[in-house]
Amino acid sequence: MYQCWLCPSNFRTRRDLKNHVVPKPHAALSVVCPWCYEEEKSFNRTLDLKAHVEKKHKTTYQSLPVDLLTENNCFWLALKPSDYGRVVSPTDSHSSSAIQARSIILEWIKKGSKQTRSKDDWLNGWWKREVIKSPTPERVGDSPVMGAGSYAKNGVGAAVATGDGDVMMRFLPS
Ligand SMILES: [Zn+2]
Ligand SMILES: [Zn+2]
């Protein structure tokens, strides 16, 4: 069972849950077009944003690296980054596509006039999540699921596991 974190609905598969949170009212994966300045234009899916950019901002689209508008990298363009990050794992914050996406957004914030989120909202959305991802210095590696991942501490030991993740999550000892 996959429980929606925004309403009481349950779903049999992760894909069903994703299909449920994408449209309104949740619009959990909505992303902005960082090349529309007049008004804030957002899209429920990365694919819709991509189609829009290809059509309305042709020259820009042709100059973009192919990995800029992937679903994972569009975390950096997400209006609700904490929701977005629950469904899609963001690209590494140090990757060139992530850095470029953030600089495009910061540029957009400077030029735009009717944005629904302030610069601080954007920065918090990007980095507050990093804190959640690494709650303790012992945390090793990275996991898209809260409470999962691996831990190691000098003098205590380390624990890792592999196998059927969905089954293991049910018996998560932490
Ligand atoms: Zn829901
Ligand atoms: Zn646009």
TrEMBL record:
Domain C2H2-type residue range list: 4-26
**Family as reported in the entry's similarity comment:** Belongs to the Ntn-hydrolase family.
Q: What is the protein name stated in its UniProt record?
A: C2H2-type domain-containing protein
